[in-house]
Every structure is written in C-alpha cells, then in structure tokens.
C-alpha cells in the first residue's frame, strides 16, 4: 500500500481491504463449488454445456445447484454493498477499534452464512449470520449519510 | 468527511455519497420487504426455512416473492454500476450543477423504479424510471472512458 | 482526470478505468439486448408489461431471455468484483506492464464470454473465457490480501 493512500485512510484501510478481499475470494470459491456440483450432479444451465458432458438431457435444474446459486446471489446482495460502504467509511476517520469490529462482524457473518447455506444447517443459523453482517453495514451506511449530509 | 478526501473531490463527492448510500439503504429495505412477504405468504426458498415456519410444503414459489427478487436484481444491475461510476466521476472535477443533476436523476429514477415494481404500477412507469436513471449513468460512463483514454 | 488522483495511481489508473468502464457499458448493452429479445419473443416477466404488449398470455418464460439473464448474472458475479479489485490494485503501485496485462485479460475474457454466451458458441469457449478473466482477478485479490496483511 503506497504511503499517500495509507495516510488518507486513518489506518483502518488495510483491515477493510483484508476483510473485503477475502470475502471476494470466498465468492469465487462459491462459484467454483457451483461448477463442481453441476459436473457431479450433471445439471447444466446451457444446452451447449450439457452436450459436452453427456447429452441434452443434462440441461436441467438441480436442487443443490439452485442452492449454490442462491448462496452466491445473497453474497451479491450483501458483500457488494460492503465493498463500497466499507471503502468510503475507511476514509471517514473512524475510531480504529470500532471500525475493526465493523469489518470483523461482516467478515464472520458472511463466512458463517455461506457455511450455513451450502451445509444446509438448520434455521435460523443462516438468517442470524445474515443479520449479524447486515447490522454493521447499516451502521456504516448511516454514518456515511450523516457525514455526506453535513458537507453538502 | 476528512479534509483531504473532500479537497480531492471538487465538492461533488458529498452529494454522490448521499445519493448512492441512500440507494444502498433502499436496497436493504427491498431485502427486508422480501423477507416479510416470504413470511406472510409462507413461501420459502429453502426446506430448512419452510420446516421452521410450518412444514416442507411451504418451500415453494410465490408471485409476490418473485416480484421482490426481480426488483432487487434490477437494483443490482443498475445501482451497483452507479456506485463505481459516480465515485470515479466525482473525481473528474465535473461542473457541480451538472454533477448534482446526474446524481439526482439516478436517485429519483431508482426510487420510482422500486415503487413502480413493488406497487405493480401500470406500464411503462417502471421502464421510464429505469431509463431515467440509466441515462445519467451512461453519460458518466462515457465521460470516464473519454478522460481515461486521454490519459493512457 | 485531475492531477492528484493520477499522481496517486502510479500511471495504471487510466488503463483500469478504461477497461472497467467499457465492461460496465458492455453490461448495459446486454440489458438492452434482453429488453429487445423480450419484445421480439413476446416474453415478459411482469403481467403489467405483458398487458401493454398484447395480453396476459405473454407473461411467460423464454429460453433466449433466460440466456440473456444468465449472461448478465455471470457479469455481475465477475465484473463487479473486478471494479473493486482493479481500483484498489491500481493504487498498489504495480508494475505498469504487468497491470496492463491483468486489465486486458479481464477485458478480453469478459467480451468473449458475452459473445460466446449470447451467440451460443460451442463449449468450452465460454468457460475458457470465464477462466481467462478470473485468473487475473484472483491474482489481484491475492496481491491485495498480501499488501493489506503486511500493513495491518
């Protein structure tokens, strides 16, 4: 990280970049798992893929594939906003300890969410993990709105 | 907002951060509404959720849930690019009045889009709101491409 | 691009902004194509749209529309993380040649992916294009994790 960017960030940027980028890598892993489940269950979304892997009858839905797709979609609904909110929040000179708690809750919440989704853990583990990660995101959003409104 | 970040932004960054973060919060609200509709219509995507709320027969599709999911997906297709384009555009030293008009059109277009989608308003209100928000996004994208190409 | 932002970026920011914004515009084109296919095949997702275009029987699924939606969703799974990773990576003072190769591979991979998807090209062209674009994204993610961990 070059000095100027770090100097702007009030020291919490590295922690944000670590948590956020690890979550992006986690999303890539979900995509790889989806592909593996498609191959193992022989359930492809496109006729051209099915043809390559045995025949047109394998262009079909599958419950486990759909589960992977839902997990990935939920990541897009929650982790992508965090990439934006966390980056902006890191430049608002937050208290470092408070900021680290924010990032850690998002990181842990989303990791547990994926494990609970793909592992079919009993309700409401997945929903609680979702909420755990959304609360710090909502907190960061409200702080950004507040700071932005003050400087209009 | 710390002074250095503001100094870089040419004064339009606060307006962008306000509009964009309010749209992220609006997306969070759509997610909450989706959950409420799932509970009220007893239509869950996962067997483990259905079991917790009455039985496996409630793992089923529902037209109103699908509508919420489509509204949320359309937000992901349009608001997420705005988070990126608007942030970069804010650092291109745009005319403040022109920039504010861009941000306001995106904000209003996407708010009306969600109301029209979830409220099942008659066509083409939703499509017009979609187009209203996409035009300033396309404008910002073209200005970024132009500036980036000049500095290659 | 104002001087301060360029000075921070180590000269690779313009190339990143060009590749990333062109990919966002490409996603906008996929959205327009989806709308055109809906109109041509008379296959709408919402009853209110179907009513405006001939009658409630046109609220229905269509294979070609679904294909457009899958292409767009795959873009959201891959191009959105690139918007974040590439921006952060551009501020890590990467070797300009190496950085340009990263951005170009993502750009070419995602362009070919869309052509292969919408053009129904034979497998595994689309999958290879997907992998071609994901490898530099994974490389940027690992470099960000490394730099962030060093500065914790």
List the helices and strands and how they pair.
Three copies of one chain form a homotrimer.
Chain A lengths: L2 H7 L3 H29 L5 H6 L10 H28 L5 H23 L6 H26 L2
Helix pairs in contact in A: 2-4, 2-5, 4-5, 4-6, 5-6
Explain this structure.
The structure is a homotrimer of 152-residue chains. Chain A is an all-alpha fold and 152 residues long. In chain A, 78% of the residues lie in helices and 0% in strands. Chain A is built from 6 helices and no strands. The mean pLDDT of chain A is 94. Chains in contact: A-B, A-C, B-C. At the A-B interface, helix 4 and helix 6 of A face helix 1, helix 2, helix 3 and helix 4 of B.
Count of individual beta strands of chain A? 0
CATH architectural label of the domain at 10-24 and 64-147 in chain A: Up-down Bundle
Characterize the largest beta sheet of chain A: strand count, sense, and whether it forms a barrel.
none
Distance between the termini of chain A: 30 Å
Shape of chain A: elongated
The CATH homologous superfamily of the domain at 10-24 and 64-147 in chain A is called: Membrane associated eicosanoid/glutathione metabolism-like domain
Task: Write down the secondary-structure element order of chain A.
Answer: HHHHHH
- CATH fold-level topology of the domain at 10-24 and 64-147 in chain A: Four Helix Bundle (Hemerythrin (Met), subunit A)
Give the fraction of residues assigned to helices of chain A. Answer: over 70%
Which class do the helix and strand fractions of chain A yield?
A: mainly alpha
CATH class of the domain at 10-24 and 64-147 in chain A: Mainly Alpha
pLDDT averaged over residues of chain A: 94
In percent terms, what proportion of residues of chain A is strand? under 5%
Weakly predicted, low-confidence segments of chain A:
none
Q: Which chains have the largest interface? A: A-B, 35 and 30 residues
- Number of helical runs of chain A? 6
Subcellular location (chains A, B, C): Cytoplasm, Perinuclear region; Membrane
EC number (chains A, B, C): 2.5.1.18, 5.3.99.3
Cofactor (chains A, B, C): glutathione
Organism (chains A, B, C): Myotis myotis
